[in-house]
C-alpha cells in the first residue's frame, strides 16, 4: 500500500498549506515541485513540471475563459445590466416576493451573458439590495435570492468554471456548456417556487407594495430596446455552439464582441469602463490559469504514484451500485466545499473520481454537470464560499456574515433538490447534447 501512503502525504501537505493561508495555486505548485524532486529525480522532475505548466497554458480549449469573463465585466461596468433589470421590473406584476423574484429572473438572464458567478452576485447585490431594504424585505429574502441566482452563472452558459472543468477532465467543452442549460433553468424554477411559496406563507418577509401600472406598449418598447439585443448575444454564445457553426472559443469571441458593441450602442462605453473591464478580466484569468497550470502536474503525479489506478481497482472491486458511489462522491465534495474553493476541489477530485466514472461506464458529461452543480454550491457554502464574501462586500452596514450564511441555506437546499432530480433523471442533462 505504498501508493496510499504517498497519496496521504500529498493530500496532507496540501491541506496543511491551505490551513496556513497559502494561495491555492502556490500550494499546488509547492506540493508538485516537492513531489517532482523526490519522485521524478530532482532536476529532471522540475523540468517536467515546467513542461506541464507550459502545456497547460497553451491549451486552445482555455481561450473561452477570459472571453466569458470579459463579457460579464463589460455588461456590469457599462451599465447595460441595470437597464436590463429595470425592463424586467416593468413586466413583473404584484406577485408575492416581487423583488426577490426579480433577483432570480435578472440573475438568470445575466447568467446568459456572464461567465463569472462573483461578477453576477456583485452586480445584483449592488443594484437590488438598496431597493429591497427600502421596501422592508427581510435579510433572508434579500440576500438569499441574490446569492442563489448569482450562482446560476456557473450553471448557465457561458460558464467559465464549466470550461475549467471540461479542460481538467478532458472532455468536450461544447457538450458540457449545452448540457448545463436545462439543469440551470431547473434551479431557477426551484428558486422561484421557493420564493413564491414562502412569501405566501410569511408575507412579512417580503411585504407587498403598490406597483404602478405600466402600459403594454411601454413594456414592449423597453423589451425590444434592452432585452431583445441581449438575445443576440445568447445566440452568438449558445446557439452557434448548439448548431455546430462555431467552437466554444469562436462563440466566446463573438459574444465578447457583441457585448462591446452593446456597450457602445447603449452609450455605456468609456475608456475607463474598457480599462476596468480588461483589468478585472486579467486578474480573474491569471488566477485561474495559475491554478490550472498546477493541476496538470498534480494529475501526472497522481498517475505516476499509481494512486489513481489503485483507487479505481479498489472501488470497482467493492461491487457497489454505481448510483451509491456517485452519491458518496458528491457528499465528499459537499463537505470539501464548506472549507475549500471550487478550483482546488476539482483539482483534487477529478484525477481520482473521473477514472472511476469511466471504469463504471457512466457518461462523463452527465457526471461533469452533477459535479459543476456541486461546485456552484461550494461558492455559497458557509463558511468559506467566495460568493458569501462578495455579498458581504456589496451589502450595507448592519449585514453580518451570519445573516448571509442563514440566507444561503434555503437556496443550497434547492440546489440539493436539483441535484437529486438530475441524478434520478439523467435525460435532463443529456437530452440537449444528444440533439447537437
- Low-pLDDT parts are none
Distance between the termini: 45 Å
| Total domains | 1
Name the structural class: mainly alpha
From the alpha-carbon coordinates, what is the Rg to the nearest angstrom? Answer: 22 Å
Rounded average pLDDT: 82
Number of DSSP strand runs:
0
Overview of this protein structure:
The protein is mainly alpha-helical and 436 residues long. Helices cover 79% and strands 0% of the residues. It has helices at residues 2-19, 24-39, 43-57, 64-77, 80-91, 98-111, 117-134, 139-150, 152-155, 160-169, 173-179, 181-201, 216-243, 248-265, 271-304, 307-317, 322-336, 342-359, 364-379, 386-394, 401-424, 427-435.
Give a quick set of tags describing it.
mainly alpha, globular, 436 residues, 22 helices, single chain
Write the layout of secondary structure elements.
Layout: H1 2-19, H2 24-39, H3 43-57, H4 64-77, H5 80-91, H6 98-111, H7 117-134, H8 139-150, H9 152-155, H10 160-169, H11 173-179, H12 181-201, H13 216-243, H14 248-265, H15 271-304, H16 307-317, H17 322-336, H18 342-359, H19 364-379, H20 386-394, H21 401-424, H22 427-435
Amino acid at each position: 500500500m505504498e501508493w496510499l501512503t504517498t497519496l496521504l502525504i500529498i493530500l496532507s501537505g496540501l491541506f496543511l498549506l491551505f490551513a496556513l493561508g497559502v494561495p491555492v495555486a502556490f500550494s499546488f505548485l509547492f506540493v508538485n515541485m516537492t513531489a517532482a524532486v523526490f519522485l521524478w529525480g530532482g532536476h529532471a522532475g522540475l523540468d517536467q513540471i515546467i513542461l506541464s505548466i507550459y502545456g497547460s497554458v497553451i491549451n486552445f480549449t482555455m481561450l473561452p475563459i477570459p472571453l466569458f469573463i470579459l463579457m460579464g465585466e463589460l455588461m456590469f461596468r457599462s451599465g447595460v445590466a441595470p437597464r436590463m433589470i429595470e425592463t424586467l421590473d416593468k413586466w413583473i406584476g404584484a406577485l408575492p416576493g416581487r423583488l426577490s423574484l426579480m433577483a432570480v429572473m435578472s440573475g438568470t438572464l445575466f447568467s446568459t451573458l456572464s461567465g463569472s458567478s462573483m461578477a453576477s452576485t456583485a452586480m445584483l447585490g449592488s443594484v437590488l439590495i438598496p431597493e429591497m431594504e427600502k421596501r422592508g424585505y427581510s435579510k433572508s429574502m434579500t440576500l438569499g435570492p441574490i446569492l442563489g441566482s448569482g450562482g446560476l452563472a456557473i450553471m448557465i452558459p457561458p460558464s467559465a468554471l464549466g470550461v475549467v472543468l471540461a479542460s481538467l477532465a478532458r472532455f468536450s467543452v461544447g457538450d458540457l456548456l449545452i448540457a448545463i442549460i436545462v439543469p440551470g433553468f431547473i434551479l431557477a424554477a426551484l428558486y422561484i417556487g421557493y420564493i413564491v411559496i414562502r412569501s405566501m406563507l410569511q408575507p412579512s418577509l417580503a411585504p407587498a407594495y403598490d406597483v404602478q401600472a405600466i402600459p403594454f406598449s411601454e413594456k414592449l418598447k423597453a423589451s425590444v430596446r434592452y432585452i431583445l439585443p441581449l438575445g443576440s448575444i445568447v445566440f452568438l454564445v449558445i446557439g452557434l455552439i448548439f448548431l455546430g457553426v462555431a467552437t466554444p472559443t469562436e462563440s466566446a469571441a463573438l459574444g465578447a464582441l457583441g457585448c462591446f458593441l452593446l456597450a457602445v450602442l447603449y452609450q455605456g462605453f468609456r475608456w475607463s469602463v474598457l480599462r476596468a473591464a480588461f483589468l478585472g478580466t486579467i486578474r480573474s484569468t491569471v488566477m485561474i490559469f495559475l491554478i490550472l497550470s498546477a493541476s496538470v502536474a498534480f494529475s501526472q503525479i497522481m498517475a505516476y504514484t499509481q494512486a489513481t489506478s489503485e483507487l479505481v481497482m479498489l472501488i470497482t472491486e467493492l461491487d457497489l451500485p454505481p448510483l451509491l458511489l456517485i452519491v458518496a462522491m458528491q457528499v465528499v465534495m459537499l463537505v470539501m466545499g464548506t472549507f475549500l474553493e471550487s478550483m482546488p476541489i476539482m483539482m483534487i477530485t477529478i484525477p481520482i473520481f473521473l477514472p472511476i466514472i469511466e471504469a463504471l461506464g457512466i457518461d462523463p458529461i452527465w457526471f461533469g454537470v452533477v459535479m459543476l452543480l456541486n461546485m456552484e454550491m461550494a461558492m455559497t457554502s458557509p463558511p468559506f464560499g467566495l460568493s458569501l464574501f462578495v455579498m458581504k462586500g456589496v451589502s450595507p452596514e448592519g449585514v453580518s456574515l451570519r445573516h448571509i450564511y442563514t440566507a444561503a441555506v434555503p437556496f443550497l437546499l434547492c440546489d440539493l433538490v436539483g441535484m437529486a432530480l438530475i441524478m434520478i433523471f439523467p435525460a435532463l442533462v443529456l437530452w440537449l447534447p444528444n440533439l447537437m
